[in-house]
TrEMBL record:
<dbReference type="InterPro" id="IPR052759">
    <property type="entry name" value="Metalloprotease_M4"/>
</dbReference>
<dbReference type="Pfam" id="PF00903">
    <property type="entry name" value="Glyoxalase"/>
</dbReference>
<dbReference type="InterPro" id="IPR037523">
    <property type="entry name" value="VOC_core"/>
</dbReference>
<dbReference type="Pfam" id="PF02868">
    <property type="entry name" value="Peptidase_M4_C"/>
</dbReference>
<keyword id="KW-0378">Hydrolase</keyword>
<feature type="region of interest" description="Disordered">
    <location>
        <begin position="161"/>
        <end position="194"/>
    </location>
</feature>
<dbReference type="InterPro" id="IPR004360">
    <property type="entry name" value="Glyas_Fos-R_dOase_dom"/>
</dbReference>
<protein>
    <recommendedName>
        <fullName>VOC domain-containing protein</fullName>
    </recommendedName>
</protein>
<keyword id="KW-0482">Metalloprotease</keyword>
<feature type="domain" description="VOC">
    <location>
        <begin position="294"/>
        <end position="412"/>
    </location>
</feature>
<dbReference type="InterPro" id="IPR027268">
    <property type="entry name" value="Peptidase_M4/M1_CTD_sf"/>
</dbReference>
<keyword id="KW-0645">Protease</keyword>
<dbReference type="InterPro" id="IPR029068">
    <property type="entry name" value="Glyas_Bleomycin-R_OHBP_Dase"/>
</dbReference>
<dbReference type="InterPro" id="IPR001570">
    <property type="entry name" value="Peptidase_M4_C_domain"/>
</dbReference>
<keyword id="KW-0862">Zinc</keyword>
<feature type="compositionally biased region" description="Basic residues">
    <location>
        <begin position="161"/>
        <end position="176"/>
    </location>
</feature>
Amino acid sequence: MSDVFGSLVKQHLLGQSAASADWLIGEGLFTDAVQGVALRSMKAPGTAYDDPTLGKDPQPASMADLVDTSDDNGGVHINSGIPNRAFYLAATAIGGNAWEGAGAVWYDTLTGGSLEPDADFATFAAATVTAATARFGEGSPQAAAVADAWAQVGVLSSSRLGRRRAAHHERSRRSGRVGGTPQARPRRPHGAGAPVWRVHRRAARARGAARRACPTPRRSAGCRCSARASLLDLAAASGEPAPDRYVYQVVSPQPGLLDAGTGLDVRAGEQQPARRRPVAARRHAAGAVMPAAVLDHVGLQCADYPASQRFYDAVLGELGLTRLMDVGVACGYGADHPVFWIGLHETGTGFRESHLAFAAADRAAVDAFVAAAVAHGGEVLHEPRVRPEYHEHYYGGFVRDPDGNNVEAVCHRPG
């Protein structure tokens, strides 16, 4: 489902119709060193990559090639090629914008309230046909396109479809689904007795699961749980399957190749090359909970505190950061909590320049940051521009603040 809705978001953002979309998942993940175009292809599963190091894209395009495995929690990331292609076929057959046709049907199916967590492909397929009929009408071209898509990938036949739709309709009636709106279901409490999170990892040829109970909701922004264990612990551990919670890495069979780079861009995507961690990180490998970020906040002492307040109010405002806290002798800036502080110069003598780089959402924000700095007495050290010596999309502008520090705004996204 993540591939479906991720592709819909991409198409909506780019203004693409179902016919004009590329239907690739993870495009741009690989560098030129890898023989491949993406991590997965919804249009043609099994064709996304074919590389000497990574191997060939293992996804099947139909039930005829279903991969029967206990790995990857039953092959949830491998066999997803089958429903992915069904969605592609339905979307292109319906035509127009996928989020208005097949996407709406898939959304209705997921939110309708009658789909059970253990539904198989055929059950889900029948549910989508039911949802298409409810949305577009009995005998509509849209409902026919959805049914035909599932038939093309070998999930449903006409006789099986009839039985599945009848069974799904009965489950919908019993679950209290009225007019397509599910009744509210109580949430399972977290904390004591909460479902256990599992982090699945692969290293060399071993596989296992380490688990830790999470006291906060799965999507809570405040949750920093982390399950960490040694390779031997992972290999020996076991647990109940947890579909779509599988994390995997690319491990090269050739010694030394990973140090030289496998051609994978580690800044994006689901696959990342295995890397030897620094000594300090390896010391925490046996169960320590590591923070999500290296720094929580930083602070500077200012010779002219009021002037620095005016300066940073202006330049950080262009990046969407505001003064969130003021304790008299210091104040903190951030988006949701203070991460950058300035205050009165109270300790130490002499000046040593500091360099601070603030993240900008786009290149226009970098330009606005520098302009605001100049308007408030800042000196431009380096005009905003692409700096390929760092990387091809590095766009930064540097100014000097009232205390003489080198302050930068940088955007890492393509222009």
